[in-house]
Every structure is written in structure tokens, then in C-alpha cells.
Specification:
Blueprint lengths: L30 H8 L5 H8 L3 H6 L3 H11 L6 H8 L5 H8 L3 E3 L13 E10 L2 E11 L3 H5 L4 E2 L7 E6 L4 H10 E9 L4 E4 L7 E4 L6 E10 L9 E11 L6 E12 L8 H13 L1 E2 L5 H51 L1
Antiparallel strand pairs: 1-12, 2-3, 2-6, 4-11, 5-11, 6-7, 8-9, 9-10, 10-11
Helix pairs in contact: 4-6
Length: 347
């Protein structure tokens, strides 16, 4: 038995079909299609990237309605009359607001001179999402020119003590809830200077820590941004803008409420800054550089851990110094005691 070596298709009968070239230029696509059916499906970062690829896309991606929709979908709090009025006064409207408010704020170099006028008012636009769905949104205006504000410990609360906000967050009664919230919860705290039309985001986007209180059972999710301070003239001096979301209530297996959302500023000695000190930090932060937009969570956690490490080292040095002083005091006391005893004995 023999097998033929002839290929299944003979070269004499094979035919080749050449497809007509397909136009790949964007000019072949109607601008209305790109704007209505393509660009509207992009988030803010993707839209910025698309705008950098060509002159035509840059023009289409600059449409105000696109950025207005992106801001409203990213931060529902921006769809309030007060925030809309502020955005309308920006050079490029919602596009300018997004570029300032989305990235992580890094603050200014610590040795840079600060000659900024403090804002007379601060506006906080806060949005909390659970599994990418909004569960809390609120805008609070804070007057900052009174003597009481400047001298008192700085703190902004988004909820009154008796107010709560129902959420779909389940209360398992175990540490599993804390573990899940690290990935499921996200927060944006946009701080706005309405006079000079400046804004920055003080949140790490994702929690840097989630813990359950041992006594009350409430869950505390902490978000943070570390800003350069430089009050002592060193590049390592920094402060933590800490945001704490408190969730509690509901029987085990039920749904928890948001009971508190607050912002405070803490230095490396563990001291909370007063209003005047915080305004100095914010004024510098408004003018500061913005971090990489796509690495907010990683960079935010990295800088928070760095802050905790430096804070711990400073505390250890302080305790060591105090311990040395205590030993010197004890030694001096012993010397005085024996000298006095010797003096009395010789008499």
C-alpha cells in the first residue's frame, strides 16, 4: 500500500483572494460617532490618554459635556449647585476640576517659602463608594477666619452626631468585614478654596487601615494623605491628613450605617494641628504637585506607612532621650544623697 505525497490543494487550482484595504484613519469615522458612542464610554484617565493621541481626539475630548458627566459620575457631590457654580468659573470647567481633584496630592517641598494668603472658607465635597456604587455624598462649607477656628483643634465632620446614613455594607460581626472593606470601600474628599478656585483630593482612595473597635464593635476605616510640612526646616517633616469613616449598627448579618466621617491633621509627634496650622498646610497643598493618577492607592499606602515609620522612630528617640535624662537625674540624686549623708557624718 502506498500513500500519495501530493498536497491537498494543487498549486494549479489554488486561488488567492486579496481583501481591499480597510481605512484605519480616524478621519474616516464621523466625529459624532466618536464623541457619542466611543468617548462617552471612557473614564477620566482614559479620556485624558485618548486626548494625547491626536489633534482630532484632543479637540473631541475637550467637549465640556463629556467632562461634566465624568465628574458627576465619579463624584456625585459635584452635581450640587455650590460645586457646579465653582466649576463653571474654571478656565476649562469640569476638565480643569478633574485634573486638579483626581490625582493624589503630594504637597510642596519642605524648604519652599510660603507666602500664601489663607482661604477664608473651605468647601469639602465627600463621596463614599461601596463596590463601586455611591452610598454617601455630601458637601460641607467651613468658615475659617474666626478666632475660634484658628485656635481650636482642626476637625471637619460631615455628619452631625445624631445623623446616620444607611449602607448596604453587611455586618458579619467578625474581622471578615474589615478585610472585605479594604478592597470594597473607596472615598474621595475634595477640599476646595472657592475664592482662588483651587482644589485637591485628601484621600488615599482606598483605606490604609480598617479596624473594629474592641468595645463598641464599630468599624473604623482610615483614609490618609501625607503632605510635606517643613515647619522645622527639614525635608522629612510631614503631616497626615487623616479621614476616618465610622460604620456601625445593625444586628449581625444586617446592614451597617455610616455614623461618622471626619478629617483631622496630625503631625509626626502625634499632635493634632489647630485651624491656623492646618490652613498653612492646605494653602501649600493647593499649590503643590500632583502624584501619578493611576497609582493613587499604592502611593497613598506607601506614604502612610512611611509616615508611621518616621513617627515611630521619633517617638523612640524621644523616649530614649527621656530615659537618658531620667538616669542622669537618678544618678545626680544618689550623689546628692550620699554627699549629704557624708556631710552629716563628718559633723
Amino acid at each position: 500500500m502506498s500513500f500519495s505525497k501530493q498536497p491537498p490543494f494543487s498549486s494549479s487550482t489554488a486561488t488567492t483572494t486579496v481583501e481591499p484595504p480597510i481605512a484605519t484613519s480616524l478621519s474616516a469615522i464621523h466625529p459624532d460617532i466618536l464623541q457619542s458612542h466611543v468617548l462617552t464610554r471612557l473614564d477620566g484617565l482614559s479620556l485624558f490618554s485618548a486626548a494625547c493621541t491626536s489633534t482630532e481626539l484632543n479637540s473631541l475630548a475637550s467637549h465640556r459635556d463629556l467632562w461634566t458627566n465624568i465628574c458627576h459620575s465619579t463624584w456625585p457631590s459635584t452635581n450640587t449647585p455650590r460645586i457646579r457654580e465653582i466649576i463653571s468659573r474654571l478656565p476649562n470647567g469640569s476638565r480643569s476640576f478633574f485634573s486638579e481633584s483626581f490625582p493624589l496630592t503630594t504637597g510642596l517641598p519642605a524648604n519652599l517659602q510660603r507666602n500664601y494668603d489663607y482661604p477664608s472658607e473651605l468647601i469639602s465635597a465627600v463621596d463614599i463608594h461601596y463596590k463601586n456604587k455611591p452610598i454617601f455624598s455630601k458637601v460641607v462649607e467651613t468658615e475659617t477666619s474666626s478666632a475660634w477656628f484658628l485656635c481650636s483643634p482642626f476637625r471637619i465632620d460631615m455628619l452631625d452626631p445624631k445623623d446616620t446614613c444607611r449602607t448596604p455594607i453587611p455586618n458579619s460581626g467578625t474581622e471578615e468585614t474589615c478585610h472585605d472593606l479594604v478592597g470594597d470601600l473607596s472615598l474621595s474628599w475634595i477640599l476646595i478654596d472657592p475664592t482662588r478656585l483651587r482644589s485637591m483630593n485628601l484621600s488615599s482612595h482606598k483605606p490604609v487601615s480598617v479596624q473594629r473597635h474592641w468595645l463598641s464593635g464599630e468599624v473604623h476605616a482610615r483614609f490618609a494623605t501625607v503632605l510635606a510640612a517643613g515647619e522645622r526646616g527639614t525635608a522629612s517633616e510631614c503631616v497626615q491628613c487623616g479621614i476616618v469613616v465610622t460604620c456601625g449598627g445593625g444586628a449581625q448579618g444586617g446592614e451597617m450605617d455610616v455614623r461618622g466621617v471626619s478629617l483631622q491633621v496630625e503631625d509626626m509627634d502625634g499632635v493634632f494641628l489647630d485651624g491656623e496650622g492646618s490652613l498653612g498646610i492646605f494653602s501649600a497643598g493647593f499649590e503643590g504637585k500632583k502624584g501619578m493618577s493611576g497609582r493613587r492607592e499604592i502611593e497613598g499606602r506607601k506614604r502612610y506607612e512611611m509616615f508611621l515609620g518616621r513617627k515611630r522612630e521619633r517617638k523612640e528617640r524621644k523616649l530614649k532621650k527621656e530615659g537618658t535624662l531620667d538616669m542622669l537625674c537618678v544618678s545626680f540624686g544618689v550623689m546628692v544623697f550620699f554627699s549629704l549623708g557624708l556631710f552629716l557624718w563628718l559633723r
